[in-house]
Amino acid sequence: xxxxxxxxxxxxxxxxxxxxxxxxxxxxxxxxxxxxxxxxxxxxxxxxxxxxxxxxxxxxxxxxxxxxxxxxxxxxxxxxxxxxxxxxxxxxxxxxxxxxxxxxxxxxxxxxxxxxxxxxxxxxxxxxxxxxxxxxxxxxxxxxxxxxxxxxxxxxxxxxxxxxxxxxxxxxxxxxxxxxxxxxxxxxxxxxxxxxxxxxxxxxxxxxxxxxxxxxxxxxxxxxxxxxxxxxxxxxxxxxxxxxxxxxxxxxxxxxxxxxxxxxxxxxxxxxxxxxxxxxxxxxxxxxxxxxxxxxxxxxxxxxxxxxxxxxxxxxxxxxxxxxxxxxxxxxxxxxxxxxxxxxxxxxxxxxxxxxxxxxxxxxxxxxxxxxxxxxxxxxxxxxxxx
Length: 387
Prior knowledge:
Number of strands: 22
Pfam families: GLF (PF03275), NAD_binding_8 (PF13450)
EC number: 5.4.99.9
Keywords: FAD, Flavoprotein, Isomerase
Enzyme class: isomerase
Number of domains: 3
Strand order of the largest sheet: 8-7-18-19-20-17-21
Strand content: 15-25%
Structural class: alpha+beta
CATH superfamily of the largest domain: NAD(P)-binding Rossmann-like Domain
Shape: globular
Mean pLDDT: 94
GO cellular component, one term: cytosol
Distance between the termini: 20 Å
CATH topology of the largest domain: Rossmann fold
CATH architecture of the largest domain: 3-Layer(aba) Sandwich
Radius of gyration: 22 Å
């Protein structure tokens, strides 16, 4: 009945399902545990008619032409150069910390001198991880690093990850650089924005194909059984491809222990006024228990709405309790070793592919995940031609 089963209807599952259905003519079944498609990119109008991102703000950004063109088949874009500010005392300063921020923090003569030192040391337009900046031998550059560390990085990072920056993977800390540029945008990619009608309509179009069947509200283990050398679908041996995008430890009932993640709680609030904060995102880097506030109308470009809706984000340690969602893998050697035990179990399953943040225990942006899903589909099609 089906040639391929894709578990999960987020970006990884949707892209791979579409390519296999469209380009290989495969009959694809997509099983999604949640009641909706789109994964964490899912968005919908709230009760006030304001388009919200239910699982926190998502902005598409990429310099990969192939990815942009592929997703553009399923949506037009609202071009949006994402700019983030941090509330430090009574000021809102641009983040990542950049040359504009530098001139807000220091008086002109000192800021000019520091700017020249940063350019000489790292080059104009460079992105320097804060932990690397702290290692510079120049005391003036270390002074900048210390300001950023204390006012932008330290407390925010501890809230987000429950750890000090020194204990966090460089892969994570490297995503919060000092930018030697006057560009206030959070990203510098060629293409930036959100789907004009929302992420959910983009996913609906992507999964709307005669060879794709989507079932939501279905845990894959209700339909699939995984044994050492065989996968069963509805009790019958299944020899087609299975692409799994869920949490790998949970697939195997956490038999070696649960993989650690950070989770998030979202508190949505609506206000009957034109604007709450005047920005799409304000990070609270030195105060409050939440990490940031997103005001959606600035993110999506919605106009003619009554009032405004915001969301506050509260990070916490994922426990696996009902309703919790694993968002960010905690990239430590001991956790990677635990992941490899589950990866070895999965390795014994025929035509079984792991794809995505949860299945691979990695961090992916939307564009990188799209690219990876496209490559996997291409690899499966190439393998099929050899059989």
